[in-house]
What we know:
By secondary structure, the chain is an all-beta fold. Helices cover 0% and strands 47% of the residues. Strands 2, 4, 5, 9, 10 and 11 form a six-stranded mixed beta sheet that branches. Strands 1-3-8-7-6 form a five-stranded antiparallel beta sheet, with no helix packed on it. A hairpin with a 2-residue loop joins strand 6 and strand 7. The protein starts with a strand and ends with a strand. The mean pLDDT is 96.
Amino acid sequence: QVQLVESGGGWVRPGGSLRISCAASGFDSGRYAIGWFRQAQGKEREGILCISRGASGKLKGRFAIDRGNTKNMLYLQMNGLRPEDPAVYYCETNLEDRCDAPSKSGYAYWGQGTQVTVSS
């Protein structure tokens, strides 16, 4: 049974950093593309970063995604957090090997999310 569990969210001051985690179970997450999304209150869910099979990490602006050194873990390092960054952050996989591959099953797996709050 595929399961994703996010953790590590919380409150941080503007300009601060936070590293959130996603624990995968029921499959070998290293063999699949997996990524982070977020959804702010009143807004649509948006993609942040995704890494494909075989990739260990990727950097995009203030955010970096990596698989870390522990099997079946995924991390999102967020630096220079801004007032527009508060949201519920989710990890997701559709069990394909590339981030741009559409799901053959038509299904995507999501965690329950972890809340990130940025305020002074």
